[in-house]
Write a structure and sequence with these properties.
- The structure is a single chain.
- By secondary structure, this protein is α+β, with helices and mostly antiparallel strands.
- It contains four helices and six strands; from the N terminus they run βαββαβαββα.
- It has a single domain, classed as 3-Layer(aba) Sandwich (Cytidine Deaminase, domain 2).
- Strands 1-6-5-4-2-3 form a six-stranded mixed β-sheet, with helices on both faces.
- The protein binds tetrahydrodeoxyuridine.
- The site of tetrahydrodeoxyuridine has 13 residues, from α2.
């Protein structure tokens, strides 16, 4: 038997270390939390997506009384970006959240599994890594590719396997 060790690198910055464009993307993600519709969870998530030409598109979580019919902020933003600007690749996504107390949290918010899967396909479609910024009041986590968030992932290459 042998073990496969899988490592990912998460770079951690303090707010004052952010570049101007990172600051702007984080502001957009934070602002998007106020456009969330989350009457059931009271957890308001905002995502800001930066496209290859610098355009920023935002999304927020949108809930529904039939719970599974809602959608996370990340997928709202990615699907909107791909439907409004199908020719522009996504280069970055920044995610922020406010908890039931209405405040931004001290721990970085991380995307759920389904959002990681959707981000992975967006990354693979464009052939360029998508950088991920995960925000909190204390620090901001940076991950340099969606692949890092989804080790041993499933993608379309499996669909072409000979059986
Ligand atoms: N949510 C997101 O929008 N993004 C995530 O990455 C995790 C969870 C939303 C879904 C639901 O509206 C609420 O947060 C509570 O799970």
């Amino acid at each position: 038997m042998k073990d496969l060790d899988i490592h990912i690198r998460v770079s951690v910055k303090q707010k004052q270390e952010l570049t101007d464009s990172e600051h702007q993307l984080m502001d957009e993600a934070c602002r998007a939390t106020y456009r969330s519709y989350a009457p059931y969870s009271h957890f308001s998530v905002g995502a800001a997506v930066e496209l290859e030409d610098g355009t920023i598109v935002t999304g927020s979580n949108q809930e529904n009384a039939a719970y599974p019919s809602g959608l996370c902020a990340e997928r709202t933003a990615v699907f909107y970006a791909n439907s409004r600007y199908p020719e522009l690749a996504i280069r970055k996504i920044c995610i922020a959240a406010r908890g039931v107390d209405g405040e931004f949290g001290a721990n970085p918010i991380t995307p759920c599994g389904a959002c990681r899967q959707v981000l992975l396909e967006a990354e693979q479609r464009s052939g360029h890594p998508i950088k991920i910024m995960l925000c909190s009041t204390q620090s901001i986590y940076f991950v340099s590719s969606v692949k890092d968030l989804l080790p041993l992932s499933f993608d379309d290459s499996f669909l072409t396997l000979d059986v």
